[in-house]
Each structure stands twice: as structure tokens, then as C-alpha cells.
## 1
Amino acid sequence: MRAPSPKSLRFAALLGLMFGALSLGEARAANPLELNFWLSGPRYDGAVVDCDKALPTIATQFWEKESSFWNSSLKITSFSAVREVAFRPWQSDNIPRRFCTGEALLNDGKVRKVHFSIMEDGGFAGYGDGVEWCVVGLDRNWAYNPACRSAKP
């Protein structure tokens, strides 16, 4: 590979200085076209589904995670005592979330606490509701440790 010539290095430096000088101009506000063209930002209505609507998603994702990553046959067979813990617990301009908790009966006969949140437009690529969940005692990759505390508000 050939080293760049001093002449091309000088040209690149001069070109960089010219573009740098052009960018030192006065900052201006967006014109009306720039304001109305795909710069609308997020519009959160706070329309988050109830806690019960997320339970099938949690059961499916739990089974997929256990069977795929941990080579386990554990499944959630049913839920009980599901209730809302908080709705939009932070500032109103954050992504709306509904925090819930409940008990999950697993196919090994054990009942474990499950903490989860439902986010408006938190699904894949921002479509649909997103669900984040943690089953206490089965957070094998420690994503929400200790004892799923990070899954709570």
C-alpha cells in the first residue's frame, strides 16, 4: 500500500478547514417546513392495557427463555393474585408504564412471585405494548437482581 502524498494531505487538511469554517456560522431556528416534516416526536396517550392482558405474553416468553437458554422444561401454568402496583410512577413525560405483580404457578408445583411492567409502544420497533417481566428465583442471568427488584417501580 502506498503512503499518501504530501500534496493530497495538504488538500485534505485545506478541505477540512473549509468545512469547519462553514460550520461556525450562526445557528438558526427551524423553518416552518422543518418543523412540520417528520419531527413530531412521540405522542404517548397513556393507553396501557391492564395487567391481565400481559399474562399470555409472559407465559410464552418464560417458556421460550427456559427451554432455549437454560435447557429447562419449566412452564408457567397459571397466574393468581395479579394486581397493579403503579401507573406512570415517574414524571408524566416519560414512557407510560403500568407496573404489576402477581404469583405464577409453575409446572414443578412451586408458586413464585412475578413482577412485570407494560410499556406503551414498547413492543418490537415501537409497535404494540412491550412487556418486561421477572420471576423471583428464576432470574438466572441476573438481569433484574437482587430478587427482581429492578423490575419494580
Note: The CA atoms of residues 90 and 153 lie 9 Å apart.
## 2
Amino acid sequence: MTPTHPPAPSEKTLRLDAQALSAFLDSAFPAATRPTFGDVVSVAPRHVRMVLNPGPESIRPGNIVSGPTLMGFADVAAFAVVLAHIGPVGMTVTNTLTITFLRACRLERVIADARLLKLGRRLATVEVRMWQEAEDRPVAHATIGYAIP
């Protein structure tokens, strides 16, 4: 007897829309910390856009958004784009995260565009660009890998 495997995830097929993805993120993270991870704006094949309105907990010396805040935001945006394609698999975990801070991030709205670079049965790779006023002036860029159970 041959074991049956669930269908492989597809980079072209969404399993969660923006509303379902937001609901899952709201349930997956503690309510007190959830606002620090941003909100889902849109979901499309291979792409999720999120927005973060950083608060006082995000400030570092120089009155700019801290690196850990941007790293957390990038990680959640990447997690979101993977989940949008594989479904609500909470134990999908980060296995690599490389981030480059490109310019100071002011304490105002930050947008993250997470793009799926590769999606396999067990691993996913995502690129996240974070920007403020103009997409062509990113504040940070990250490449994040996920292990899928």
C-alpha cells in the first residue's frame, strides 16, 4: 500500500485570504503583543503586504524604529505569506533570517512586502522589503527561510 501525501503547496494557489490570515495571526500571538507585529493589508499569489504603525515600545535612541522591531515585523510578514499558501500551520518556524538595515526608519507607518521566492513541501524562502514613504527607498531588506512541518 502506498502512503498518500497531502497535495504539495503551490506558489500559485492561496489557502488563506486576507481575512482568514488576519484571524489566524490574531489567534496565534498573544493579544498584548499582536499590535507590534503589524496588520495584513493584502494577499495575492506569492505576495502579502502588511503595515506596522510603530508605537513607543519600538523606539530606540535617535527616535527611530529599533532593529528588533523591524526584524519581528519582517518575520511575521514572511510567516504570513507562507501561511497564505500552505494554510494555518502554526508550527511553521523560522530557520534563517538575514536582514540588512538600509536607512533610518522613522517612527511612522512602515510597509512590508513579503514575496515568496520558493515554496517546497518542507522549506520556504521569502524576501521582505520594508519601506515608508516610497517603495524605491526601502528602510530594510530581509531574506527569511521557514521549515514547514
Note: Helices lie at 18-28, 67-86.
## 3
Amino acid sequence: MDGMLTDLNAIPDMTDGDVERLLAALTRETRRVERVELSFGAVWIKRYGTERPPIWTKAQTSLARLFGQPFLRPSPYLDGKGMIAREIRRIETFAAHGVPVPKVLYSSGSALVLSDVAPTVTARLDALRDIDPAAHDALLVACAAHLGALHGKGLCHGRPHPRDFFVAGERSIGFMDFEEEPEAAMPLATAQARDLWLLFLQLTDRARLGEATAEKAYAAWRTNAPPAAEAELTEMLRFLGKFLSPTRLIGRVHMGSDLRRFLAATRYLQGVLLPPRPADASKAGKDD
């Protein structure tokens, strides 16, 4: 693998000027992710090992232990070379299963050069949001459908967000940014359930047509997703539901975007998967 990825001249259609331009960009190391225009089109540089392990990673580990909830565990932390190896391995695994992914064009000890896969789903959603709400929401449903198909192949993404999906054709969604590997920290079915919940944090907030879109999206995911993933999602929601009331109280003081997404996604999925609570006995007979 390394022999195929460490020679810039081996990249198809590279000119001497492209090699010089790309080497200069790799040497600059100005941004973690950088788009570089070459004679045959754009490529993306992703740099690794430039940041420290986030504090939230340690907090996640502590919370997972405290509550006994595997879905809270973070992906194993790796150094820069380990992150590069993980991303290449996961891209190759997804490609082997017929999933559209970026091509790895070059690998150094601290960076990857990847093919351009524009447009991202986020860019397409932004373009459709106000001019065609139906097409906008149909794209959200397609994201859920392709995530379900991904899960049906025994895979999971780790952080499914519209910015990490791309439009690979009229009826195809591709995936990128494989820095997470939750199945290395929890059972696969749990990782897939978390994938769906994370997607719905975005989907329920973005949907222009409201709950009708969420219903179509969940049904589309469920068509190909493993039953074990749905069972794990149900258990996740039993736990997350305990935080709905406190979150609502916090929201009365300040309803930030993260709280809003948590409430909308968790409340909707609870309504789909969990039976309603018995009526409060204190209210019995009040409507008689």
C-alpha cells in the first residue's frame, strides 16, 4: 500500500507543475484541511497529528463508565500515523463493499491527499433549502436510506453528518471523513444505532417538511438496517429519554442549537420506538 501511495508522480494526470504546487502546499501546513487546484482538477489535503486529544474524549470515556453505556465511548485515540492508517483502511473497506468514497492519491507521514468528491450533501441542501423544500427533504431521506444500506453491509460511519456525505450520482450518496471508528470501542450494532441517532440530530433540525420527512427517513433507514441496530437504538433511547425533561428545563433559559437538535431527534425517535407511558394516575377521570 505505501509503495503505491507515496509517489506524487504516480498520481494520474500529474504534471511537473502539479507536483511542485502540491509539494508546496504539503510543506506549508497552514490548515488541517486544504483544497488545492491542480491542472486536472481539485484535490484535498488532510493533515493529522496537529491537535491534542480533545478534553471531551476523556469526558466521554468517564461518562460511558459511569452510566454503563457503550454508545458514549469515543473511538480509540491514535497518533497521526495511526489516524492516516485508519482512514486509508476504512476507505478501502468501504470501497470493497461498493460504497462511493474519495480516492487516496498520496500518503505521507503526516497527511493524505484525497480526490475531490464535490458536491457535498450540505452544499446541495443549502442550494435547495429555499427554492425546492421537497427536493431538499428527499435528499435527507436519501441520506438515511444510504446509511441503512451501509449498516446492512456490516459497516458504520461514526459521525454521519451531511457535510461528510457527497452526491455520487442521481441516486447515490457517498461517504467521506473516516477518522472515527466506533465499532472498535463498542459492539457494531451499538455503533450503527448511534450512527442513526447522530444523523437524526441533523435531519430533524434541517427538514423543511417536518415530521413527515423524519417518518420517511426512518422507514428508509430501517429497510436495509440490521434488526440488531434497531434493538440497540431502542435501548439507547430508553437511556437518553431520561434527559429530555432536564434538557427542556435548560432550554427555557437558553435553547442553543445543540439542545434543540437533541430534543427534536430524541423525542421523535422515542415516539417511533418506545411505547407511550401510562397516563398519570393523578389525571385519571378528569375528563369524564
Note: The two ends are 74 Å apart (CA to CA).
## 4
Amino acid sequence: MQLRDYRTSILLGITFTILLSTFWYMPQLAFIIFISLLLQLLLLPPVNYLNKKLPRSLAAGIVLVAFVSLTFLLLALVSSSFVPTFSRFITDFPQLTEKVQNIPLLQESEFLNAELDNVWAELKSTSVDALKSSLTVLLSLFNKFIDMVIILFVTFYLLKDGEEIKQYLATRFPQKDTGRVLNLFNRILSALRIYICSQLVICCITAVIVFLYFSLRNLPYASVFAMVSGICEFIPVLGPTVASAFGILLTATVDPFIALQTAGFYLLLTQVNHNFIYPTMIGKSLNLHPIAIILGIILGGELLGAPGMFLAVPFIVICKLVIEDIYEHRLRQLENKKNSRWLAQKHPET
């Protein structure tokens, strides 16, 4: 085996290892770049459409401004229902914890009671610390605002010059493999676009369905449960399980029979999402086993916390596609060598 035959594969492996490791060594920078990339993938179709009639920079600016405006409008609409309900939920939280701990089934389990006590204690201490350190919270919000401004600027330039950036990066690899590298980049970007768009749609559908269920049943905190369910859908497999447990536990404080019905509702919703909606929207393009997703989410949570759990599936998709590309290239190289030997034996030089 000659090393130069696999130079591009080695460079790809090293490059993506370094890029992914930046989330560990420089998490803030890497997170800004990755979120900007996801936004670029989300907004690219309307920019391409407008670019047929307008300069690309103008098309990118119009789409980005429209996206930010729509986001603020949706936040305002959601907040009008969510903020009052969430405030009431926080006020009622101590009484809810007592009701949960007084559920007969939980009273009989010392282990569950101990775990619940730990969870409630952590939540209470977190709330108290947040209230005591209001200045720190304000500084943190300011930093997040700066991050959002940077993300918007990076997204704009990715929308404007993304194709040139991709071409430039591909030309940094050996010239004979430029097409291969471009194809790999396109496969990664296509898979990420499918993933982020599908996740957003599933999150919105889940939040609306949960809100309608709790509203129609006249159950309290409908918008809180809807928000929790929608956000948790961003963490496949584990997220919906946590949201379901949260909803079932707190509806059990109203009526155990309603909690049983809520459990059936969440079970049906999860099965429909992950057996019909999720496969239909994502199809077989990602082709990830649930065990790989679960282990990736756990590892991401251990390394980076909540952002790591959110980014686990995109990470796995990128690693999977890079490994597949390297493996397929090796198979092609072996096949070419085999064919070369066969031709040499069939037509020996005279």
C-alpha cells in the first residue's frame, strides 16, 4: 500500500477530527460557527430563489431580516401565552412538588422519593442562585446577545459566499480528489439540512399537539408542557421520554386517571412521531441506529452538557459520512489494483 494513494483520506480524517475537537477546546467559537451553518442550510433555498432576480448579497440580507422578524413575531405570540402560564407554574412549583411526592405509587418507593428530593432540591437551589445573582444573569444575557449578533453576521456571509468557501476548501486537498471532496461536503450539508428542517417541523408539530391536548382537557400549564415537549424533541429518543415523564408526573397531581390517559397520549404521540413522521421526513438518508443516537447523546451531554446533547446527532452524521467516504475510497482503490493486476496477467508485455 502506497501512502500517497490514501493522502486525501488521511487529510479528511485529520481535518474533521480537528474541526470536531474545537467543540471541546473552543466550545463558544465552534458553537457559533455550527449554529450559523445550520441557519445557512435552513435559509439557503429562499436565498437561491431570490438570487435569480436579485444580487446574492441583497437576497441574503432580505431573507435574514425576514427570518429575524418572523422569529421575534413568533416569540412575541408564544410569550403572550407562555410567560403568564410559566410564572404561575413557578409560583405553584412548591405545592406541585409536594403533590408529586404524595402520589401513592411514589410514596412506596424510597429510591424514587430520594431521587425526586434531589431533583427538587437542585431546581430550588438553581432558582435561588439565579435570583441572587441578577447582575451575572444580565451579563450572561448580554453575552448571548453579542453571540446572536455574531451568528447573524456569520450566517449572512455563509449565505452570500458559501459556495465560494466550499470550493476554496475543496481545492486545499489534492487536485485529483477535488470532486470527491466536494461530493463529500455536499452529502454532509444535505444530511444536515434534512436533519435540522425535519427537527424543526417535528418540534413545532409536537408542541402544537401537546398544547391542544392540555387545553382541550382543561389541564393547567398547557403552554409550559407544550414548550417542554417541543424543545425536548431536539434531543432524539431521550428528549421525548423526559418530556413525557414530566407531563405524566405533574398531571398525576390533578388526577391519577388523567395521568394514565396522558401516558397513553404521550405514548401514541411518540410512536406516531418516530414511526411515521420522522421516517417520512428524514427517510433513510441518515440511517442511524437508535443505540448510536442514545450513546451519542449521552457522550455529548457528558462532554458539553445541553449543547452536546443537541449536537450529538449532527456529529454522528458527519462522522458516519466521512468514515463511509474513506471506506468507499479504499474499496475503489483495492478494486482498481485488482483490475490492474488482472489486465497485466491477461495482456503481458512482450
Note: Residues 126-139 have pLDDT under 50 and may be disordered.
